[in-house]
Model the fold of this input.
Amino acid sequence: MSARRLRSDRDDDPGTITLWIVEDDDLFRSGLADLLNSAGGMRCEHALRSCEEAFKLLEKVYAPEVVLMDIGLPGVDGIEGVRRIKAVSPATDLMMLTIHEDDQKVFDSICAGASGYLLKSSPPGEIVRAINEVLAGGAPMNAQIARKVLTMFAGIAAPKSDYGLTDREKEILKLTTEGLTKKAIADRLFLSYFTIDTHLKNIYLKLQVHSRGGAVAKALKENLL
Done:
């Protein structure tokens, strides 16, 4: 698909917000379109059942200023739909309007380029306010989802723990992950077998594991080395 200009680039209906809906629930889609068209200053130009319909339409018409996108769509899902529409029309704001509060879906939607995330159960007035907010540069989310996003990014930003391992313990753990036996590690580091055994016991204690396999698994899973 080639990039499309926004409908607002045209001279007709200046000041009117142009919107599309992509939603496979016929009743909800129809009700939402009626809400937007009655809100004043907004026009729902197209209410579509799938991302595939939106992709085809973008080849023929101007892109809208805002797309309200469901996540759980048949065929191409809403997250991939956001990614592909943003690639064609970067200036279009996409808002996820869905029943899902799943952390991964929130994260994936934001990474794909969504500008906001609201539940379908949101009051009509909240949906209208959110559209105006996103066009003003905001990122509207309901309180529950905003808390999930903050918690999720706090976890990502949290410093990685090294469990207090010393440099020598990290060196021995690394050799352990490479498959070396205690004797081979001792020979490599010019230490006694019993010294390596003591270090490994301390490593197990710090990592809160009970075996060589548990230590290796944790080191690899948490990228400790």
